[in-house]
């Protein structure tokens, strides 16, 4: 297979190919999340009677956050995380249908959260950025959940538990898994990555 | 109302109800969404699907805020009801919006109204036409894995790797195809079809948003 040069010469402008790529990846991830659906439903069915529905959300948030760090880590450019996640959310929204507009709003929050991690390193160290992005992503989405999902009503114990579980989920999917995926891509020599 | 205005209205309402707590307003939004869905002739099947989608999250929201919320029982019941109706309102508003939106019109009106870059508009449009192919590709990837005795779960890096590889190839080909059909990045485009924002649309948005503020802050609906 021919090599695909991933990072274009322009550091700020998105090329047509990159836009299509991130939208396709967003849709592909959306399709993969549907594989997760039975797991989600089974888990939720157990946790709902216990009043722990919020934990199902916290456990399964990770996969939804993958597009942003993957985009930053692949394209290595300012704003790639936010735009990548928004493109991903658009793909997901059109695939799933019903969560529609709500997906766009959460995509925006998740994108900014993840992007912040890379911003903190001044867009210089991408590996540290990836690690930091799991933390900033967790904090940002958690703050949004305080209002949007009504977390403010919970006591400290419940909040602490939800935060930790969310962080673990994001750290695995949007951190470790993304790192593995990019490693596989680098090893396959399909990409001409800029070091 | 044009498509950009529809999107703006749904976004505004979605953000507003995320920060406010009124069961009746949420119920009203659900009712209006259902009426819109009926007017736009949604099938019974899609209604059943929407209701099925809502079941677990609604019961889940209610139980968790009732069991673990803080405050008196009355307050907890109120907040649990707010969260329950909020979930349903989101699902039905999303569905009502999707049922009345034509995607290419939305993207093109965003290009004309909010100056979204043509690269994004046509890139997304191009990618969306790949949805059926992507679904098929992921099925194939998993089937190929199974033939080798390898089950690819949603946490398997290999599954994502193969999907991204496919996306890399397709995005390259599609971008080339679009360029060879005359698409130029960053060039000024003229529009065959115009999608201007309408004054009536702005008035509808204003009236609806004012009505919501009235419900929330003047009438203080429960």
From TrEMBL, chain A:
From which domain of life does this come?
Bacteria
Do you know which InterPro entries this protein is assigned to? ABC_thiamin-permease_prd (IPR017195)
Segments crossing the lipid bilayer: 19-36, 56-75, 129-147, 159-182
**Sorted UniProt keywords:** Membrane, Transmembrane, Transmembrane helix
Among the Pfam families in the record, one is: ABC_cobalt
- Record's protein name: Cobalt ABC transporter permease
Species name? Leuconostoc litchii
UniProtKB/TrEMBL annotation, chain B:
The entry's cellular-component GO terms read:
plasma membrane
Residues crossing the lipid bilayer are: 7-40, 46-67, 87-107, 119-138, 159-179, 199-219
The way this protein sits in the membrane is described as: Multi-pass membrane protein
Q: Major place of localization?
A: membrane
Q: Which residues form the signal peptide?
A: none
Alphabetical UniProt keywords: Membrane, Transmembrane, Transmembrane helix
Report the subcellular localization.
Answer: Membrane
Q: Which domain of life is it from?
A: Bacteria
**Keyword Transmembrane among UniProt keywords:** yes
InterPro entries assigned: ABC/ECF_trnsptr_transmembrane (IPR003339)
Q: What is this protein called?
A: Cobalt ABC transporter permease
């Amino acid at each position: 297979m021919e090599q695909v040069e991933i990072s274009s010469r322009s550091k700020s402008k998105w090329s047509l190919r990159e836009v299509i790529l991130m939208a396709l990846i967003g849709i592909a991830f959306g399709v993969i999340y549907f594989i997760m659906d039975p797991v989600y439903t089974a888990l939720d069915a157990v946790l709902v009677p216990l009043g722990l529905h919020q934990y199902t959300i916290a456990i399964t948030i990770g996969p939804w956050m993958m597009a942003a760090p993957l985009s930053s880590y692949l394209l290595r450019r300012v704003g790639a995380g936010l735009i990548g996640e928004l493109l991903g959310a658009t793909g997901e929204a059109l695939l799933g249908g019903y969560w529609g507009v709500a997906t766009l709003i959460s995509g925006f929050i998740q994108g900014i959260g993840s992007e912040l991690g890379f911003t903190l390193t001044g867009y210089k160290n991408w590996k540290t950025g990836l690690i930091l992005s799991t933390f900033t992503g967790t904090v940002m989405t958690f703050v949004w959940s305080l209002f949007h999902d009504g977390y403010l009503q919970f006591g400290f114990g419940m909040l602490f538990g939800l935060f930790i579980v969310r962080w673990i989920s994001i750290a695995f999917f949007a951190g470790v898994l993304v790192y593995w995926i990019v490693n596989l891509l680098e090893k396959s020599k399909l990409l001409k990555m800029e070091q | 109302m044009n498509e950009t205005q529809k999107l703006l209205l749904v976004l505004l309402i979605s953000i507003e109800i995320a920060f406010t707590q009124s069961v009746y307003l949420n119920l009203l939004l659900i009712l209006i969404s259902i009426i819109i869905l009926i007017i736009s002739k949604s099938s019974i099947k899609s209604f059943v699907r929407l209701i099925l989608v809502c079941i677990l999250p609604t019961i889940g929201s209610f139980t968790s805020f009732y069991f673990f919320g803080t405050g008196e029982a009355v307050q907890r019941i109120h907040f649990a009801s707010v969260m329950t109706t909020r979930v349903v309102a989101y699902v039905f508003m999303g569905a009502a919006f999707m049922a009345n939106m034509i995607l290419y019109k939305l993207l093109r009106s965003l290009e004309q109204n909010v100056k979204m870059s043509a690269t994004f508009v046509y890139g997304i449009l191009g990618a969306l036409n790949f949805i059926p192919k992507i679904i098929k590709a992921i099925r194939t990837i998993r089937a190929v894995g199974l033939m080798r005795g390898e089950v690819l779960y949603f946490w398997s890096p290999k599954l994502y790797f193969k999907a991204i590889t496919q996306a890399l190839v397709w995005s390259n080909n599609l971008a080339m195809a679009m360029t060879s059909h005359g698409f130029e990045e960053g060039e000024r485009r003229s529009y065959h079809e115009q999608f201007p924002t309408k004054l009536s649309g702005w008035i509808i948005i204003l009236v609806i948003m004012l009505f919501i503020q009235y419900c929330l802050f003047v009438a203080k609906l429960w």
